[in-house]
Amino acid sequence: MHEFDLIKKYFSNLSKFNKSSLDLNDDVFFDKRKSLVISIDTYNEGVHFLDFKKPDLVIKKILRSSVSDLICKGVLPKYYFISGSGNKKTFTHKNLSKISTSLKQEQDKYGIFLCGGDTTFSNKLSFSITSVGYSKNIVYRNKAKYNDDIYVSGNLGDSFVGLKILQNKIKTNKKFKKYFVKKYFEPEIQIKLAKELLKFANSSIDISDGLIDDLRKMLNKQKLSYKILEEKIPVSKNLHTYLKKNNLKKLNFISNGDDYQVLFTAGVDKSRIIKSTSKKLGIKISKIGKIRRINEKPVIIDKKGKLLLIKSSGYKHQF
User: pTM (2 decimals)?
Assistant: First the structure.
């Protein structure tokens, strides 16, 4: 069962009289009257992170991925709560000390504060993080409009290569290994973009499960389709070099998740302000496609106009 089917069948009915739940179809809870925005995420060893050999980096990854849910809504994260389930092997003094140091570094970097949480004993390692922010408005899912331009911040694919390196499925030189592994553990979340999004975005989501899968989620209840231009999908110089050197297709590397960049749509008339915002903040923002009518098939095309097939549209939450 897909996560959307599970939510619809068992839980949607429980929230139908609570407007702030957003029909359980967005990244956050939003109480407009109180300007309160909340998100929660759970991370399991072996699913959301490989192992716990580097607890200092694992905790950075999951904290950044959690607050990115607020950032893509146009909200600055302010507070977070963290709960952890582990045992004597995972929650050693050494590991806990590393976790504490990393959390302090992240707090200083993003201006966020720990407010509480919980710890439980378990043979299976997992963490849950609740992120809290305040805003009078947010950028919703499912608010895209026909003929909107589709944009994405930053670069895609680096984290996926880092994961494959850690899984020993990709071999590369030390320079590339260091770069890609760092991108896997420390995704470059675009916190400076948060407040600017409200000025031009019609709809948004963070790319956690993959470009195509998250684009579908952003449109899931709308009668709309999309066209993506492969050549416009942004990748780093290192990834471009790696793909070219190994004669690999870009399309197989840009929709596998863990990018935590902001995917959003905006009206054609917003292109100038988006371009100036990109320059002002020093953040790459790329126009990668168009929102189409539902009767037009969703497509990804290359620069010659050829239709492309993608091997992986992203991570699927199946139960």
Answer: 0.94
